[in-house]
Amino acid sequence: MEPGLYQILILSTALFFIGIYGFLSRKNLITMLMSIELILNSVNLNFIGFNKYLWPNQMSGLFFTLFIIAIAAAEAAVAIAIIINLYRSHRSIDVEEAKDLKY
Amino acid sequence: MSGSTIIFYLLAAASVVFALLSVTTRQLFRAAIYLLFTLICIAGIYFWLQYEFIAAVQIVVYVGGIVVLIIFSIFLTQQAGEKLAKQKTDRQLLAALAVFAGFIITVLQISRQTFFQTDKTPVPPTMENIGQQMLSVKEGGYALPFEVISILLLAALVGCIVIALKEKKTSTQSIKKEN
Fold first, then answer.
1. Cα B81 vs. chain centroid, distance in angstroms?
2. How far apart (Å, rounded) are the C-alpha atoms in residues B82 and B78?
C-alpha cells in the first residue's frame, strides 16, 4: 500500500497515544517531560501531513510546525530549570513528593 | 512495493518501537536515548515527505537542543545506573486501557473520513518561499507570530535565569528547614 495521508495520520495517532501513556503511567518529572515532547512531535507530524497532502498550495502547516518547535524548546528549558530547582529543595523529582508549591 | 514505500514503513515502525521503549524502560538514561532515536526517525519522515527545512530544524532543535538538555538534567538529578521505582500495575493497566481505547476510536474515525485535496498549484516548501512568507507583513504573512515567538523566547530565557538563580537567603532557609 502506497503511504499517504492516512498512514501519516495513523502514525501520528500512535505516537500521540504512546506519549499519553507515558504521561499517565510515569511519576518522574523528566520522563513526563519526554512524553510531552513525543505528543508535540506527533502534532507536528499531523500538521506536515495535512499540509503536504491536502493543501500543498499554502504553507500554514509548515509555519505552525516551526512555531510549535520553538515553543517546545522554550517549554523544555523552563521545565528543566523548574525540575532542577525542585531537586535542589526536595532532593527528589517524583511528582508525588512535590506536594507543596512553596519551597 | 517500491523503495520509498519500504523506507516509509521502516521509519514509521522504528519511531513507534523506540517511542514505546522510551515510555516503558525503567532506566532514565536509556529512555532519553530512545527518545533521541524516535526524534531522528521523525526527522527521517520529514525528509521522506520532502520537507527538508523542517527535518533540519527538527534535528537541530530537538536532537541537538532538547535531548541534550534532558540528558544534562538526568545527570544533575539522578544517580548513575539507578533504576526508577516500579509503578503500580493497576495504574499502568488503566493507562494502557485508556490509551488503547483512544487509539482505536481515533483510527476508526480516520478510516471513515474521506479527505479532498485542493487542485490549486502547489507551492514548493523551499527555503526561499519559507523565508519570504515568514517575514512578510502582507496578507498571509507570518511576521506577527514571528515577533510574538521571539518575545516568548526572550521571556523564557529570563524566566529560566530567574528560576535557576540561587539566592543566599532562601538557601540558608532551606538548610534550616532540613536541620
1. 25
2. 7
Please give the residue of chain B at the shortest CA–CA distance from A53: B117
Angle of helix B67-77 relative to helix A60-90, nearest 10 degrees?
10
Choose, out of A34, A84, A89, the residue to mutate when testing the contact with B (most B CBs < 10 Å): A34
pTM of the full predicted structure? 0.88
Start-to-end Cα distance in chain A: 56
Which residue, among B163, B170, B173, B175, would best test binding to A if mutated, counting the most A CBs under 10 Å from its CB?
B163
Mean pLDDT value of segment B41-56: 94
CA angle B12, B18, B22 (to 5 degrees): 145
- Domains defined along chain A, listed by start: 5-90 (1.10.287.3510)
Interface ipTM? 0.91
